[in-house]
Amino acid sequence: MDRLPLPLEGITVVAVEQAVAAPFATRQLADLGARVIKIERPDGGDFARGYDTAAGGLASHFVWCNRGKESIALDLKDPRGLDVARRLVAGADVFVQNLAHGAASRLGLDAATLCAAHPRLVAVDISGYGASGPYAGKRAYDMLVQCEAGLVSVTGTPEQPVKAGIPAADIAAAMYAFSGVLAALVRRGTTGRGGPVEVSMLEALAEWLGHPLHHTMHGGTPPERTGLAHAVIAPYDAYPTADGGRVLLSVQNDREWRRLAEQVIGRPELGADPAFATNAARVANRERTDELVGTALTALGADEALARLEAAGIACARLRDLPELAGHPQLAARDRWREVGSPVGPLRALLPPITLPGGDEARMGDVPALGQHTGALLRAVGMTDAEIAALRRDGVAAWART
Questions:
Q1: The pTM of the whole model exceeds 0.85
Q2: I want to staple 65 with a disulfide (CB 3.0 to 4.6 A). Which of 23, 186, 341, 387 is the partner?
Q3: Where are the beta strands (DSSP E) in 98-164?
Q4: pLDDT score, position 231
């Protein structure tokens, strides 16, 4: 049986993007076979290129979000640079931008303007708070949106709220932009028309806050911050082990508690003890419940604790750090690691989580240098050698350093 091609083979995406939200969205499209042309500023490009140098001299955010793209460096404030961008868009299926509020409109690169000129184009505006309303012009960095969306209020300990350790608002917006593009392309396949797609970081993350939000709106009280514990289930927490590890376990019902009491804690009578026999009782006596579990697990190494919990049918996990994730046996067993090219050589990267059995593997292209494809793309939109030389001379376009 012939293998299926990647689903976005033949789709061209043009992006004026920076940071995480738009670049992560377009990287998903590139992984699925789309050609993604990334327009960057000549003076440094996407500012995420300068966040750090952790990935062999490259910025870790940039490596994560920008593999498989072609980079063209253009000054869009110069009419000649903007003209090149418009020529690229004219040949594209999808356009994505996450410029500061109002910037795309001033350039004529907002979704409404572009879709009016190109009816088959799917054009995506990603913003912090949306195109209208009192917050439309407000700066919207990830941590700020985490605060505005209430994520920080439900994350952390009772004493200290904390932000998520990943850019959750950016990722939420990126994934809704990604799915919005796919939905719009399906609609174009039946109607022949593309159309605008609008995604805001606040609205994307507010959707992800659905459980605590509904709990609060309809139940009257917001869930408490409980660290690694669960607000309404006990035992449900991470417990230290004898070898310095930590094991998280979750008891979902009273049958599991009885098995935990007998096979792990070694005190079967706790299964019928009124102070612990029901989840409501264990939550009311959370401190004593945690002490019983903690005492049992601190006598065991992490491997032995996990083995006993698994044998008892208790949901459990090792609390891993990032080096341990990089060496996770499940990822290795499923052959999820690949190498991608970059200006500093091969870099290890995970296959994207969307797997399409029977089809081509995700296209994990190289991480581009700033302006690596400028010359080829300028020629592709019909510019002459003299015009290209003038753009380079005047700093309207830039080339990768060699």
A1: yes
A2: 23
A3: 122-127
A4: 80
